[in-house]
Structures are given as structure tokens and as C-alpha cells.
């Protein structure tokens, strides 16, 4: 081969390879279906664990119900995972790039869902333990400065707008694990963190008692949260003061 052939062939080969790569990339991109820009697509990561309508996982008591909870509460929890106040790697990864607009859109969807509750197993506790659970939920324990759950979560335990969740219908596993998370500082909220204070005043047996009593309650006919301003928080709670959740 002459000198001219040796010098020009590599250039032609380079252009051919580059053009072939661009064509292949274009074809591969054309074969990929476009991701639909819909709410159902955006909540797919949520519904995988929490159910299509946020009804909670039927296979595990650790994935709670989102349906019907105040939208302000749901937004706050996504923000808490995003800011490191709540620790759970899959949720932290899921929400890390969500914009405020997306979080509000997702929260409004689940808040509006009204679907049947599914009863989860409750461990068998002694009658005295169940009585203790009922006492803590409805009357608290003044001697240990533990207010009743009903003081913030509502008389029917369905929550209060805009940021206090309902407790009725939640599984035993989830309630007990979250109270434990407040004690171990893997769950937190705006200071002063009243739930952390309360959880640390509860004995381990109290956590079991409260969780079992709540998980065994019948769900009321009306599960909507109480309106904003209908409660007077017994403790200073940063999240309520910031969002106007108290009376």
C-alpha cells in the first residue's frame, strides 16, 4: 500500500466508527419507551411498599398506611427523611431528589385516599397490660408526665390537621418500632421534639401495652382527621408550633 493509503485510511476508519456509534445510540434511545409524566409514575416508589392507594403493606406491619393521613404530616415526613431526621435508607434514597412541589403532590394524593383498613396480628398480652395501654392512650400517666395520646392525635385517634397522624388502624409492629426509634434517635422532629420526650418517659412494657391496645381498636366510621386548631398540645411541640397544629 502506498504512503497516501496508509495516511488516509485511519481517518476514514475513525469517522466510520464515530458515525456507527451515533447511529447505534440513536436507535437504542428510540427503542426505549418514554417514562410517562404522570402522578402514578411518580408515586410508583411509594406504592411498591405502601400499597397502590397507600393502604399499607399486607405482608408486613412495618410499612404503614398513608391513606387518609393529613397531607401536612406526609410532607413533613418526606422532608424529615430528606434532612436526616428520620433514618431508613430506602426512604432516604427515595425522597432525596424530590422537590417541594412533588412532595406536596404525592402527599395530597395519599391524603385523599379512602380505602378499607386491614387488621394486622396483635400479640397476646395480659389483661393488665392492655388496661395499662388503654390508660396511657386515654388518660396518660400524670405521675410520669406522660400525656394521653388522645390529647394530640384526637379523641378518635384519627389525627388532627395539619400535621398530626392518626394512630387508629396502625399495626402493632409499626407503632412499637416508631416509639423505639424516638428512643434511639433514629426518628426525630422539629425541636422541642415532644414525641421523643414522651417515648423516653415510657417503660419498654408501656410501649408494648400502648402498641397492642392501639392496634386492637376498632376503626371508627369517620376516619378523617380533626380540623386544625381543635387540640391544645399538653407539651411544647416544635412541629405543631411551626405548622399551626395546636389550638
TrEMBL record:
InterPro entries for the chain: Cyt_c-like_dom, Cyt_c-like_dom_sf, Cytochrome_c_Oxidase_Subunit
UniProt entry tagged with the keyword Iron: yes
Keyword Heme found: yes
PROSITE patterns, sorted: CYTC (PS51007)
Domain Cytochrome c: 30-114, 128-218
UniProt xrefs under SUPFAM superfamilies: Cytochrome c
UniProt keywords, alphabetically: Heme, Iron, Metal-binding, Signal
Gene3D superfamilies linked: Cytochrome c-like domain
Signal sequence range: 1-30
Full protein name: C-type cytochrome
